[in-house]
Amino acid sequence: MRAAFVLAYLIVRGFYFPYVVWGRYVPDMLELLALPLAQRKALSTAQLWTPFFLGSAFSFLQLYWGYLLVRQLQKMLAGPRDKAADKER
Question: Are 16 and 58 in contact (CB under 8 A)?
């Protein structure tokens, strides 16, 4: 079950969420920034950049959590550690 969760997490949060933020929002935001202020319904430049910065921060957080999940899965699949070998190191 853990492997299925990690796979689902990586697909949805590790790949799709950053794709939406960087691959879909940025082109739309740049198109809006090219319009005059009156045509973009008085949305300031800061109002358009804020979702990008927050989405980017959240995307990096999702990628970090995905990294932690993958490491946890690797430890689980490696099996129990030999404590005698650890003492010799």
Answer: no
- Residue pair 87/31 in contact by the 8 Å Cβ criterion: no
As separate numbers, helices (DSSP H) first and strands (DSSP E) second, the chain gives 5, 0
Domain regions of the chain by residue span:
2-77
By the 8 A CB rule, do 52 and 26 touch?
yes
Q: What is the pLDDT along the chain (89 residues), one digit of tens a residue?
A: 888 999 999 999 999 999 999 999 999 999 999 999 889 888 899 999 999 999 999 999 999 999 999 999 999 888 887 766 666 66
What is the chain's length? 89
Predicted TM-score of the model (pTM):
0.74
Q: What's the rounded Cα separation, in Å, for the pair 51 and 48?
A: 6
